[in-house]
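Q: I'm writing up a methods section and want to include an example of the input and output format. Could you take the sequence below and give the corresponding predicted structure tokens, formatted cleanly so I can copy it straight into the document?
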Amino acid sequence: MINSENAVSGTHCTGKSTLIEEFLQAHPDFVHEPEPYTVLVEEFGEEFSGEPCLEDFYRQLQFNIDRLNQHSRDERVIYERCPIDFLAYIDVLDSQAAQASVDLVSEAIRNLNLIVYVPLDPTFDVPHDEYPKLRKSVDRRLSAIFREDEFGIISSSDVVVVEAMGSTKQRLRILEEAQL
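A: Here is the clean output for your methods example:
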């Protein structure tokens, strides 16, 4: 059986969008839920701070959770980001605020069948790396959450987590194999 609700997770500039584009070409029956930031800005006209801030990540977290709740478990959906992404950003900025969001994120993750974690690849060429320290810090937090189950989110759900490294083609193969 093919997993129906999937998310691609990772810090910014890791190739999530590229992986999803390739996946959708091969699987046009899936609905794409774009990154919350993009939807909020482009479709709803919201404005975010010029610098990364806690309030902006909370807003994106809530929007992501709302989108997760609007689809049924049998719909074929691929999300660009999952609540754990925003928890990691929040944690980097304020660990107490992150701790307060763990239950909310744990509950939301139950809507997903599969999370594909795309870790930071130092060989991945990023032409304009915005906020490189934040990027690396968020990747470390995501790694701890996914690999070591920090916060206990993964073990408290039925979600399957796979790590996708390598070229886009290799990552796509990992994502497709995890679908079965």
